[in-house]
Amino acid sequence: MSMAVPLFDLNYDEREEKAVLEVFKRKWLSIGPECDSFEQEFSRAIKAPFALSLANCTAALHLAMLLLNIGEGDEVILPSLTFVATANAVRYVGATPVFADVTSLEDLTINPEDIERCITPNTKAIIVMHYGGHACEMHKISALAQKHSLKIIEDACHAPLAVYDDIAMGLWGDVGCFSFFSNKNLSTGEGGMIVMKDEALFDHAKLLRSHGMTTLSYQRAQGHSSGYDVVGVGYNYRMDDIHAALGRVQLEKLPADIAARKNYCTQYYERLKMEDDLILPFAHIRGSSSYYIFPCWIDGGSERRDGIRAYLKDHSIMTSMHYPPVHHFTVYKPFARDVPMTERAANGLITLPLYGHMGSEAVDYVCDKLSEALRSCPA
Ligand SMILES: Cc1ncc(COP(=O)(O)O)c(C=O)c1O
């Protein structure tokens, strides 16, 4: 059997089309009632006291830094095994990123013991990233933050609706940041959400989202207010109603999408657990996950891993690698720190295809070809 298996495939159908057409008919395209509804529905879904839609998660991470008064002279501890946007947000405000290691090849989330080693008198915050939708060790990390009076920012891009000990990802820390980039579980093309428990932070975030202005043009168009003041130097980090309409449909689809992904992950584990050269991370997770990606780790070094990826590509199976460590990038080399587990992970990680409607035949096909590849590229 031969088939093409993308890394990810959108689950859009006529419901997204209809939602966008409704926005067109309303003739209000920028931030407006759809954004309001999306925010309310998202906050209800994760039990967030406050949620604000944004242009993307990078904006959310930047706002998180500003809201928590992080700036020059401050150090922020974060994993290097993340997307570069997590670290860029630290640099936007002139703070220093300090890269902590991940726990193990079985648990690719930030290591609380290494976080503790990174803490100095200048440390202001910890950014956790719930890799693959799987919760970090939040009890230990929260205790550390409390002990050292540090803020916690959650990069929850992978983890919408994931819950650990009755607390949704995004709500363990001071500020939670979500992405709706087109390959995420909840996809709007571009889009993001910031969540928090503190009303003062929320009010400040609202101002920063829209130029520091005290009202939005939609409110003025509705006659709710006639003018505005500008009370701070803000940004244009707004979502618009077209993206919010997509987000609302996607949010409705999300629980079923996550349940289907979970089943495919179980199938991957069952099929691949007997392969000697493979480590399957996150066989044991904390709480419930959003199952954003299925990473596996191949023994034998990066050349072998790359050979296996090429073999899979030759059989029309798309893979990826989450992530090249941030401290390997030119601009982040000056911030490099000794993170041996991250280096080890990066040499063997490969991300296999995963999406809610991929079908068990596709999972079997990927497993068959991966087993073949492991044999044809021996360690
Ligand atoms: C872990 C992580 N952080 C941050 C981002 C940035 O999100 P966005 O593309 O919405 O700005 C992404 C998205 O790719 C991500 O996966």
Structural description of this entry:
The chain starts with 13 loop residues before the first helix and ends with a helix. The protein is built from twelve helices and twelve strands. It is α/β, with parallel strands linked by helices and 379 residues long. It is 40% helix and 14% strand. The protein has two domains: 14-250, Aspartate Aminotransferase, domain 2, CATH 3.40.640.10; 254-376, Alpha-Beta Complex (Aspartate Aminotransferase, domain 1). The protein is globular, with a radius of gyration of 21 Å. The structure holds pyridoxal-5'-phosphate.
Radius of gyration: 21 Å
CATH topology call of the largest domain? Aspartate Aminotransferase, domain 2
**Strands ordered across the widest β-sheet:** 1-9-8-5-4-2-3
What small ligands are held by the chains? pyridoxal-5'-phosphate
Q: What is the top-level CATH class of the largest domain?
A: Alpha Beta
Structural class: alpha/beta
Termini separation: 26 Å
Helix content: 40-55%
Largest sheet: 7 strands, mixed
User: What pattern of helices and strands is seen along the backbone?
Assistant: HHEHEHEHEHEEEEEHHHEEHHEH
Share of residues in strands: 5-15%
Instruction: Sum up the overall morphology in one term.
Output: globular
Q: CATH architecture of the largest domain, please? A: 3-Layer(aba) Sandwich
Give the name of the CATH superfamily of the largest domain: Type I PLP-dependent aspartate aminotransferase-like (Major domain)
Number of helices: 12
- The total of beta strands comes to 12
